[in-house]
Amino acid sequence: MRLRLKLSADERRTLREMGIYHPHARTRMRAQGMFRLAQGLTLQQVADEFEVHLNSVENWRRRWDELGLLGLFEGRHTGRPPKLSDEERSQLGDLARDAGGTARTLQRQWEGAEHTPLSRNSIKEYLKRMAFRYKRCRLSLKDKRKHPTVPPFSGIYFPVI
Q1: Between vectors from CA 101 to CA 100 and to CA 107, what angle results, nearest 5°?
Q2: If you placed Cys at 37, which of 5, 20, 22, 54 could pair as Cys (CB 3.0 to 4.6 Å)?
Q3: Model confidence, pTM
Q4: What is the band of 46 on the pLDDT scale with cuts at 50, 70, 90?
């Protein structure tokens, strides 16, 4: 059954340009699919052409009928909620600003203050988002590093000004 999609000249031009220039590949594919439906292809032909399931093309068409051009865009993809509240994040930033040190030392100090347990990777990610940068520092020359009393120093986190 062919239900040809009726498009105005502006909609055709918008779909054609969106199908080429939109930054998101899925949105480009949906725009091209709607354009192909307007050219007279069936839902199954469009599904075969774009190698997607028929239900996907039916959903594209339904969303086009309900929302128009906005129906081609993706909704929000939410991840897991953040482990730290805004207040805890600011406390972590204050700790890094005041104490400095590596992610491991920050982790020890953070958990020692009986806060929410965090992995080193989580601490690194939170500090990155707060515009902290990691700087590798060396305390000694190469020949002195072999000496057991001089510990190697990996680096510190510091705020970018």
Answers
A1: 100
A2: 5
A3: 0.52
A4: very high
Copy the structure tokens of residue 128: 């990155």
Q: Is the torsion defined by CA of 61, 66, 71, 74 positive or negative? A: negative
Question: How far is Cα 31 from Cα 38, in angstroms, rounded to an integer?
Answer: 11
Nearest to residue 37, comparing CAs of 71, 66, 63, 2? Answer: 2
Given a contact cutoff of 8 angstroms between Cβ atoms, the answer to whether 92 and 124 are in contact is no
Query: What pLDDT, in 10s, does the model give residues 89-136?
Result: 999 988 888 887 788 888 998 988 888 889 989 988 898 888 888 776
Given a contact cutoff of 8 angstroms between Cβ atoms, the answer to whether 126 and 133 are in contact is no
Q: Which residues contact 106 (CB under 8 A, 6 or more apart)?
A: 92, 95, 96, 99, 123, 127, 157
